[in-house]
Specification:
The chain has 444 residues and is α+β, with helices and mostly antiparallel strands. It is built from 9 helices and 25 strands. The chain is elongated and about 85 Å long.
Length: 444
């Protein structure tokens, strides 16, 4: 009897946790991935701030609803700050251009960077500041953003910083709906936002604005006037503001230690997890061709925090006339953002119908659903892109090449499947020796 009760209890708990896990993941909308044609996408709305802008793609488009993501592009002018804010879905951000400093504010983690002022010896040092760890960023960096963890960005260079961010709105960590929201901890509405009241994000004042100033004063042990400043009551600069001269904070002399070795995730805690890696360096390429181009992959095997984010990133560069051989992503949707050049891309659906066959160029976005076949051919100026995939361990299968589907199939099966001769079957199977990247005959 006791065994029966234990078995029933175990079964009930299994159903409860399984149901809870399923409930935590909001699925993309039904039929969102049924396409007669896929469109390349450009930003639908731009919100201008004092020292930059935030452009957002239409999250209601069928392409983005299929992928279960939403996308934004943030531009910071020189010596400006993207003020602290957070998103409820996990996200990946890619630095398209520029350099600067990023802070991740993980509540409950210690301030591990401390600065002391001068004073005649250790016993007389004057305390100056302490804060959590900061990260230097540069072009080619991919940053992970965890659900509800706030971040800020500072452009310390002389040119614009451009960052593309993809939010996984169907991730189980996002308990809200699939409408994107940015929760501001600092900043305010701009005059433009007040007048237009756009339906798209970002939109709103910071979190302090909704509280009674007296409560804020009590919570921080400050006066009422300072509390009102936290609410940015008379401020309309928005969420990207200009800094008053170069900012000063404590930073480590080098981040090289982060690149040494591959962590297995066991030694990482919530407070110390490595959140970024640069994938623009040709030396870290997973596929490299001196004539065709290169591809670098970032997933949870080389950046363990992506197990929580459940996204991965692929950086691709094709030289003029280079081709990424026909392939499909087996277990993820692909959100491709063009960072440079142009290419002709063809996409084929599960019915063997062409749903996209066009040129894409810098700044455009293209969604390729899971399993859809795709091929990319670079134009005269080459082609560069960053692709975000909706699985931290996404993998691709190729149709042709040295490790392809056809290479794995017996010659007799190829003959029967396609009605070809044995000689033709062998040419299909063995002619293309490259594995992922090749040159087209048109470029020869």
């Amino acid at each position: 009897m006791h065994k029966l009760l234990l078995s029933l209890l175990s079964f009930s708990l299994l159903l409860f946790f399984h149901g809870s896990e399923a409930r935590q993941r909001e699925l993309p909308l039904p039929k969102a991935c049924h396409f007669s044609q896929i469109n390349s996408l450009s930003p639908a709305h731009a919100t201008k701030f004092e020292a930059g802008q935030m452009e957002v793609w239409d999250h209601t488009s069928s392409e983005l609803q299929c992928a279960g993501v939403t996308v934004a592009r943030i531009t910071l002018q020189a010596n400006s700050i993207f003020l602290p804010s957070f998103f409820t879905p996990p996200a990946l951000a890619y630095v398209v251009q520029g350099e600067g400093v990023m802070g991740t504010i993980a509540s409950g983690c210690p301030e591990t960077y401390e600065e002391a002022g001068g004073g005649g010896g250790d016993m007389h040092r004057r305390f100056e500041d302490m804060h959590q760890k900061l990260e230097n960023f540069r072009r080619g960096d991919v940053f992970a953003s965890l659900a509800g963890v706030s971040q800020w960005w500072y452009n310390r260079g002389n040119s614009d910083v451009v960052i593309v961010i993809v939010l996984d709105v169907t991730n189980r960590e996002n308990q809200l709906d699939q409408v994107p929201r940015m929760f501001q901890i600092a900043g305010s509405k701009t005059q433009e936002e007040e007048e237009q009241r756009p339906l798209t994000w970002p939109s709103g004042k910071n979190a302090f604005s909704g509280f009674d100033p007296n409560i804020i004063a009590e919570a921080f042990k400050i006066d009422i006037e300072t509390a009102k400043k936290l609410q940015n009551q008379k401020d309309n600069r928005g969420n990207i503001v200009r800094a008053n001269g170069p900012l000063h904070f404590i930073s480590s002399p080098s981040r090289q230690w982060q690149q040494d070795g591959n962590g297995n995730g066991i030694e990482e805690t919530y407070c110390t997890a490595r959140l970024h890696e640069n994938i623009d360096d040709p030396e870290r390429s997973d596929f490299f061709s001196t004539r065709a181009g290169r591809i670098s992959t970032l997933n949870s095997l080389n950046l363990p925090v992506l197990r929580l984010v459940r996204l991965n990133a692929i950086r691709g560069v094709l030289y003029s006339g280079g081709m990424m051989l026909p392939h499909w992503t087996a277990n993820a949707h692909t959100v491709l953002y063009v960072t440079g050049g142009q290419a002709k891309i063809q996409v084929v659906d599960d019915n063997g119908q062409s749903v996209f066959n066009a040129q894409v160029q810098q700044g455009e976005l293209l969604v390729v659903p899971q399993g859809f076949a795709v091929v990319k051919t670079a134009g005269e100026t080459g082609f560069e892109w960053i692709a975000f995939k909706t699985n931290d361990k996404a993998y691709m299968n190729t149709f042709s090449g040295g490790t392809s589907y056809l290479r794995a199939v017996p010659v007799d099966v190829i003959k029967a499947a396609y009605g070809v001769t044995e000689e033709e079957a062998k040419r299909l199977k063995f002619s293309q020796q490259e594995t992922m990247l090749a040159m087209t005959t048109l470029s020869s």
